[in-house]
Amino acid sequence: xxxxxxxxxxxxxxxxxxxxxxxxxxxxxxxxxxxxxxxxxxxxxxxxxxxxxxxxxxxxxxxxxxxxxxxxxxxxxxxxxxxxxxxxxxxxxxxxxxxxxxxxxxxxxxxxxxxxxxxxxxxxxxxxxxxxxxxxxxxxxxxxxxxxxxxxxxxxxxxxxxxxxxxxxxxxxxxxxxxxxxxxxxxxxxxxxxxxxxxxxxxxxxxxxxxxxxxxxxxxxxxxxxxxxxxxxxxxxxxxxxxxxxxxxxxxxxxxxxxxxxxxxxxxxxxxxxxxxxxxxxxxxxxxxxxxxxxxxxxxxxxxxxxxxxxxxxxxxxxxxxxxxxxxxxxxxxxxxxxxxxxxxxxxxxxxxxxxxxxxxxxxxxxxxxxxxxxxxxxxxxxxxxxxxxxxxxxxxxxxxxxxxxxxxxxxxxxxxxxxxxxxxxxxxxxxxxxxxxxxxxxxxxxxxxxxxxxxxxxxxxxxxxxxxxxxxxxxxxxxxxxxxxxxxxxxxxxxxxxxxxxxxxxxxxxxxxxxxxxxxxxxxxxxxxxxxxxxxxxxxx
Length: 542
Description:
Elements: E1 2-6, H1 9-22, E2 27-32, E3 38-39, H2 44-48, E4 59-61, H3 63-70, E5 73-76, E6 78-84, E7 89-94, E8 99-104, E9 107-110, E10 114-116, E11 127-128, H4 133-142, E12 150-154, H5 158-169, E13 173-177, H6 189-201, E14 205-207, E15 212-216, E16 219-222, E17 227-229, E18 232-235, E19 239-241, H7 244-248, E20 272-274, E21 281-282, E22 289-290, H8 295-309, E23 323-327, E24 330-336, H9 339-345, E25 349-354, E26 370-376, E27 382-389, H10 393-406, H11 430-443, E28 448-449, H12 454-459, E29 463-466, H13 470-475, E30 482-483, E31 501-504, H14 509-520, E32 525-528, H15 531-539
Parallel strand pairs: 1-2, 1-9, 2-5, 9-20, 11-18, 12-13, 12-18, 13-14, 28-32, 29-30, 29-31, 31-32
Antiparallel strand pairs: 3-4, 6-7, 7-8, 10-19, 15-16, 16-17, 21-22, 23-24, 24-27, 25-26, 26-27
C-alpha cells in the first residue's frame, strides 16, 4: 500500500511515524511545501524572545533522520497542486527545481493546517506571522537583539500575547492592537483584565476596540484616529483553515468552513483522511461542528488515522478546546465554553467565581487564583471553566478538563481526591472549593448575582451591603454600598434597610456567610459571586 501524506509538523508526522510502527511494509511518502517537516511551532515566540537560545532546538526531525529511523520518504519544498480522486493521484510541484509530477496513492492524508489572515505587507511595512521557523528567522532579522524598534502585534489571542511578551523581551517597543473589547476572546472579560495590567506593567501598550484602517511607509493608521509608527507588524489576528486543495478536489466542507470528516477523520472520499487545523471537530459541550486549532488534537488525530489505515477502528473524541497561555509569569487557561457563549446559545446555566490560594496559605509562596466555572442548571454538567494566576493554573484546568471528559457534574468536583501537601495545594483544593460553591449555588443554599447583573439589580431596588472590614471598604468600594462588617452584622441587624439585599465581600466567602445569616432571618438576599475582586476585574476589563 502507498500512503501519501500532505503536510508535516504535528498531524502529518504523527500519522507517518505511528503508521510505520504499525506497518513495516507500506510505502509512506510525506510532502511538505516548507523547508522544515518537523518543528516545534509552539516554541517559535520563545525563540524570538531568546528563551529558546538555539534554532536547532526547534527542529525535531529532518528528512534524513526520519528516513533512517522510520524509512519514510519525506520531501520538503514540495507542494501539492491538485488531487485526482478518480485516478488516485496528486500533482506535486518541486518548488526548488520548478518541476511537476504525478504521484499515486492508495490512501491520502491531508494535514495542511491553516493559513494566516493577513498575507501581504501593509504600506511597505513588513508583516510577519508566527507559524513557521522561517517566520521567526525573518522577525529576528528585522529586529536586532536590543534594537528598541517599534513593533505592532495585531490580535490579542494566545499567539498575540506570546508574541508581545517575547518581542518585549527582545527589546522591541510593542503595541498590541486588538479589535475586540477584551483580550483572549475565548475567556470572559473579568478573567482577562489581569492580562492587560500585566502587559502594561512590562511596557507593552494595549489598544482595545481598535483595528488597522490603513498604512503608509512610516506606520499604521488605526480606527481610533491615531497613527502608530512601527518598523514591523506581527500578524496574530487568527487563522483560517486551509481548504482550497480539498475544495478543488470536491471534498465536502462543513458549516464552519473546515474540512468535514467523520468520527474516523475520514473525508467524504473514503480513501482520503484529514487531520489538524483545517478540519472540523465535534464540540463536546454543544455537540456541533467547531474549529479547534490545537497541537494536541492534531497529534492525537494523526495517530488515530494511522491506526485506522493499519486496520483499527478508533474514533475521534469530541473537542474541549483546552488552552493556556503565559505572559510575564501570569497564566490564563480555559476549557469548554465561556459564560458569554452559554448565554448566546440560550443554555440555562449558573456561574461560580472563587479566589482560592494556589497552595496552603501558611506555606511560603502561595498565590491567589481567579477561577470561574460555568455549569448547566438542569443536569449540573460542566460547560466550561477559566483559571488565571501565577502558580498552579495548569493543573487546575487539567483536572476540570478531565472531569468534563468523564462527565463529572460540577458539584462533584467537591469530592475529588487530589494530591495534597502544603507546597502543592490545600486540604480543600481549589478545584474542591469550586465544587462546594457550585453545590451551594445550584441548590439555592446561597443565591448569587453576577458582577454584570449588579447594576440592574440595584436599579430594581436592591441595597448593596458590603460586609468587609472598614479598612477594606475605605480602600475601595462599589458605589452605593453600605458597610456593615460581617462580625458586626448580628449586633447591627436593626440598621439593615428593607427590601432585597445584595451582599458582597472581597472574594465571596464572607458574603456567603452573611447570606446564610440573613436568609435565616427571613430576608431576601443574594451574594455577589466572586465578591469585590471579580466586580473590579469586570468593570476594568477594557
